[in-house]
Amino acid sequence: MLVFGRLITAMVTPFTEQLEVDYEKVMSLVDHLIQQGNDGIVVAGTTGESPTLTKQEKIKLFETVVSHANGRLKIIAGTGSNNTKDSIELSQAAEKIGVDGVMLVVPYYNKPSQEGLYLHFKAIAESVKLPVMLYNVPGRTSMNMVADTVIELSKIKNICCIKEASGDLGQINKIIINTDSNFIVYSGDDSNTLPILAIGGYGVVSVAGHIVGKEIKAMINSFVSGKTNEALEIHQKLSPIFDGMFIASNPVPVKTSLNLKFLNVGNVRPPLVKANEQQIKFLEKLL
Predict the structure, then answer these.
(1) Largest Cα–Cα distance in the chain?
(2) Is the overall model pTM greater than 0.85, yes or no?
(3) Average pLDDT value for the chain
């Protein structure tokens, strides 16, 4: 079974005051995420503000992270989009750079059919030899990839896992039951990590892993080792943090939290806006 690890964090993209990618801070952030206990990171995903990054910036991000991480954790490149041809080209570029896998989001805005989703992911997966993580997040894409589509895609050799952020435990359970044991289901929401582990999921692609990675890792390890009450206690303790990371559009709260407590990663790019005074006070108290 190919494993990226149980705790993967979708990394924010640090920016300078001029909102250019700060590659020095990118390296510092990689070190920080390793210290937080992460087994892997997603680079240039939603939390990394991928819609506002150019192709050239994404490629340089992949190069910087792969070089600096130097095998200390798994690197998954966010190469999916709503353009199949562009996704293929970026996935192939990421493969040449040496990433460990790619994450492909359900196409947003153009609302393809389930057949269209299947053919989109099949075409990208077959264009590379890398392991592929699917990403279903209907709250952002307006499109839900149903369980039957995921089950069919799981039969493609290098499609190895899915980040499931639909919040539909019935749908997620159907995927787990009807896919090969080598196909891994990750929670796409920190708050659903423990429930998804309980029905046979493997881990989480996290936002809060930036700031409470060690605690999330402890929760997962407690559950896996049979200490379910201990895992529940940690989950309940972390729940306010999980919720607090979504008081505004992701990644506004997590970037603000990093700036307040850990590492200056700068602001967000338009059309997102930085946290307001009330949100900053809330996050200060929460942390």
Answers:
(1) 49
(2) yes
(3) 97
